[in-house]
């Protein structure tokens, strides 16, 4: 709409943060991004468009408050990498964002997860599905959303868009890039983390960013505390995502390997990351499908890139496709 709308993006170099920042720029927003190395990021990501990079740390309340001056929206896209130190980082960061939003009268946008749901709960998740779990990270995410909902009493508005696992050109910290393929190397095999015949949901990051931007274009129609579920790409047979990789690289004979969960379980006493991975492994043993009925009713459509195109752009962004003169060589068909 107009350039007077300004959004602050926290976590702008991450997957969903980067795609939301770019989508907001396309939609006519002024976008400000806070980073601990703002000058370097401004040079590195200059091709994203006219984004104002400001120095700051999401763990520093004064930094967030200063960065949020004059904004109408704060996108809270920060998340501790590699499952590290969630108890000490996740809730203090959301408290800083809430304080800044309260001071500015800004709306908070939170990319939600399915961590909030129990291993024994329903397989299809709607916005009304009860949030309950016993995992540490799940309980933290539930508390995070509880604090956002409670902040309504102070006039803080929140939009939550809940996603499945991410894939996309900027999905550097996702299961896709950290386990399924090896970034920077040609694909010689694909690893699949779950039971092959158990369904799994994937969200293509550019579609997610576009969805958030479209929802914010209708901010006047949003409730003070609003949640939408993003369906993305659903595979009844979870292993189909690996079969798509085969198709995109033109290698129908490409091996699909099992993720070494046994090794991870044996090593978990010695490695924090492995302990956290084991705790969340139930997400690969049973289906969790996000029902987007409410989102489609509100927007009329869910942005949806065809899966072959989404995987192709993901592999290209991760440096996994061969190139000729800098141009990716794509599979035919």
UniProtKB/TrEMBL annotation:
Name of one Pfam family that matches: NAD_binding_10
User: Which GO molecular function entries does the Swiss-Prot or TrEMBL record give?
Assistant: aldehyde dehydrogenase (NAD+) activity
Range of residues in the leader sequence: none
Quick one: a GO cellular component term? cytoplasm
Domain NAD(P)-binding per the UniProt entry, residue ranges = 11-117
Q: What is this protein called?
A: SDR family NAD(P)-dependent oxidoreductase
Q: What is the lineage of its organism?
A: Bacteria, Pseudomonadati, Pseudomonadota, Alphaproteobacteria, Acetobacterales
